[in-house]
Amino acid sequence: MRKTSNKSGIPTGLPPRRLRAECDPGTLGFTTTAKLKPAPGLIGQDRAIGAIKLSAEIACKDFNLYVLGREGTGRHTVVDQLLSKAAESRPKPCDWVYVNNFEAPHKPNAMKLDPGTAATLKSAMQRLVDDLAIEIPALFESEEYQTQRRAIEEEFGQKHEVPIAEFAERAQAENVALLRTPMGFMLSAIVDGKPIKPEVYEALTPEQRSEIDAKIEELQEHLASILKNGSQLEKEHRQKVEALHAEMAERVVSLRVREVEAEFLDNANIGSYLEQVRTDMVSNADLFLVSKGAGNTGPFPEVIRKYHKDPIFNRYAVNIMVTHDAGPRSAPIVREDLPSLNNLTGRIEHVSEMGTLATNFTLIKPGALHRANGGYLVLDAQRLLSEPYAWDGLKRCLQSHSISITSLADRLSLSSTITLEPDPIPLDVRVVLVGDRRLHMLLVLLDPEFGQLFKIQADFEDDLPRTAKNTRALARIVAGHANSQGLRPMTAAAVAALLDHAVRLADDAKKLTLELGALADVMREADFYAAQQKRSLIADSDIKQVIQQATLRSSRIKERMQEAITREIVLIDTSGRAVGQVNGLSVVGIGTHHFGRPSRITAHARMGAGKLIDIEREVELGGPLHSKGVLILSSYLATRFALDVPMSLHASLVFEQSYGGIDGDSASSAELYALLSALSGVPIRQAFAVTGSVNQNGEVQAIGGVNEKIEGFYDVCHARGLTGKQGVLIPASNVDHLMLRRDVVDAAKAGTFRVIPIKTIDQGIEVLTGTSAGKRGRSGEFPPDSINGLVEAQLRSFAENRRRFAARDHKQPDRGAD
Fold first, then answer.
1. Would you call 228 a catalytic residue per the annotation?
2. DSSP string covering 89-139, please?
3. From 407, 666, 668, 669, active-site residue
């Protein structure tokens, strides 16, 4: 039997030192963190750090990285630090620009340049356009151009006007006038030295009109042949003018283009592009000219005051997608906080022109993949997957090792505007996704391409062993964070209190949490309270105040539930005894705050067909894990008691006054205790609450939230008044997880509350009833006055009564035959 106290016969429970293992400030090796050397990096994350280094440094493609772990474990900090170090050893990536494709403007050409060259090329092209915008018009105003242009005009005039003049003389000789009108040439008969008027023509005799018509018809045929030859002359004239323009422009354009080429002799791509520019500028020299206004009828064009910013010169622009300075070697590290499809792969913008949407290659905008090309791209996994088509677009780029710009409107067929098809840009990037474990598991299960593209995972630990070495190392990390955040130094007692809180967050007395974000929040709030008290150091009282205030801010629901129990609106007994009734414990989560709540569990039993009814399951309030626990305890009863007779039990289990869903098997031991009490008729002490799951062998197993559950029942007992007989039964395997509040520990020290570890159901039922559980003797029977003996006797009684009932029913006459 377990050691009991002399007065009540109840086990004494765990000693106070096992309920809360506090950190001793004297073991930390410092008085304040002011002079404590901060620890570099993180502790306990060697596995994750090794994975990040491998992904960052390996040259093979598709070794992209998924970083998984809880929020606040330093994932982003470690990723930034390690990527920054790896980026220093990688070469600076090349610049990429888009330039006009003069043969197919809707398919702009992507051009690779040396680092830092893109901006230089763009400036050089701007200067080229600016210079030619001045020099080409000046060249066309020169005496040489005017002389050659006049010669062409005179030649054209001579070839064009002489035949017309000769025809006019011939027509004049035949009394027909050649008239010039806005609509062209026309012929009219001459009478009395003047063109004939319509009314005069109508007054002529038919013979005279026929003679005039025949003469004019013949002359019109001759005139038509002359005008047809004039159209060919005009075409030749235009060709000569264009050839003159090209010849004149060739001089200055070639000179200026060679000057630009001299700046980029080492880049063959630029040389080829500039040759295309030269050819296009020579062919389109008119872009730099404009005709004179209507008020000037001269033949020569005049200078236009236009520069490279004029949209007409966009064809010669350089659209920089990504550029890097020519400084030290370093690969880019890009973090995209809004990983939409456009923000990842880039977009093509449109402008409104005359009521329609138009675009050109200068409106292509880069995305995060362009900026990170040659380096690293860090993305939040959940945000990425929540953006339409972003995940699909990223995978497509990683698989093809190129960046293709596709707008979301095109993917959804929502736009009918003319768009571009820019050249894909080769992609060499290492993508780092940061997310949680559940999302990683879903991607592995549901997306077969995920494992091919993200071959490495960096799994961050949630906690680390609570050793003296790790404790001191975590203290140094805490000190470093306080220093980097500009917080006040902390006393050793304050650090110890913070480390105690880290143990509580780890939910394990032998672990320290690695959720440094939560600890940092406590430090910042503690610094605020220290500032209010005008202290230069953060004290342990400040840390305690932070924890108390955080609990207070989140305790409204908890207080309402406690009030309902205190006012006996919710029925919970903390004294006395009852058959088939036990106090179970559960954990309620409200946001990030969790607290324990006791619940009354009752069991009823009678003769039946071997059915155990879980009322929670019947009404669909019980989850699968809770139902599993009930089935396990049913199996425990069926295989432990009255094995030689059929199970003739009809029992029901329920959480009283439970109006929400219940899941988890942590109440299965409490349900079994209630059922054993109902079968044996032995009452259970209501001063105890129970938690723990049970297996088919009757062993009590560990559960989660043990600290919150103990404190929840303690708060109820404290509100009603501690009697010295109250306590909680927990699985023995949960003892290492205890990190209870100080007031609970103080009550244990005073002997007014106890925490009793239990390994088996037999041990637990003995504590709850004060009656021996009983073991089978050599005869195979339990002691008749033990709990197990009484349960087995009751089950045998149910089986015998059922047999007699069945036999009596079988002997009844068939009333239907009368």
1. no
2. TSPPPPEEEEE--SS-TTSPEEEEE-TTHHHHHHHHHHHHHHHHHHHHHHH
3. 666
CA distance 460 to 46: 9
DSSP state letters, 158-224: HHHHHHHHHHHHHHHHTTEEEEEETTEEEEEEEETTEEPPHHHHHHS-HHHHHHHHHHHHHHHHHHH
CA–CA dist 198, 715 (Å, integer): 121
Q: Is 363 helix (H, G, I), strand (E, B) or coil?
A: helix
Q: Give, to the nearest 10 degrees, the angle between helix 516-532 and helix 468-484.
A: 60
Short-list 676, 663, 670, CA closest to 584? 670
Structure tokens at 50: 């090794």
Q: Is 544 a catalytic residue?
A: no
Q: How far is CA 462 from CA 45, 465, 704, in A?
A: 9, 11, 16
> How far apart, in whole angstroms, are the C-alpha atoms of residue 662 and residue 587?
10
Among residues 28, 15, 16, the alpha carbon closest in space to that of 498 is found at: 28
Segment 192-201, tens digit of pLDDT: 666 766 666 6
The C-alpha R_g of the chain, in whole angstroms, comes to: 47
| DSSP letter string, 719-754 | HH---SSEEEEEEGGGGGG----HHHHHHHHTTSEE
List the end-to-end C-alpha distance of the chain, in Å, as a whole number: 65
Which amino acid would we find at residue 419? T
- Catalytic residue from among 511, 558, 709, 725: 709
Asked if 785 and 680 count as a contact pair (C-beta separation under 8 A), the reply is no
| Residue from 710, 502, 685 nearest 587 by CA | 710
Question: Which residue spans within 6-83 are E strands per DSSP?
Answer: 65-68
Structure tokens at 470: 């790790």
DSSP secondary structure code for residue 285 in this structure: G
Contact 363, 314 (CB under 8 A): no
Cα(379)–Cα(8) distance, integer angstroms: 62
Percentage of the chain surpassing pLDDT 90? Answer: 41
Nearest-CA neighbor of 757 among 680, 699, 681, 677? 699
CB atoms inside a 10 Å sphere around CB 568:
10
DSSP string, 407-429: -HHHHTT---S----PPPEE---
Nearest in space to 570 (alpha carbons), one of 655, 654, 688, 657? 657
Helix crossing, 206-263 with 268-283: angle to 10°?
160
Scanning the structure block, which residue is given the tokens 């235009």?
238
The three-state secondary structure class of 791 is: helix
Q: What is the pLDDT of residues 669-722, one digit of tens each?
A: 888 999 999 999 999 999 999 999 999 888 999 999 999 999 999 999 999 999
Residue 545's φ and ψ, nearest 5 degrees, are: -65, -40
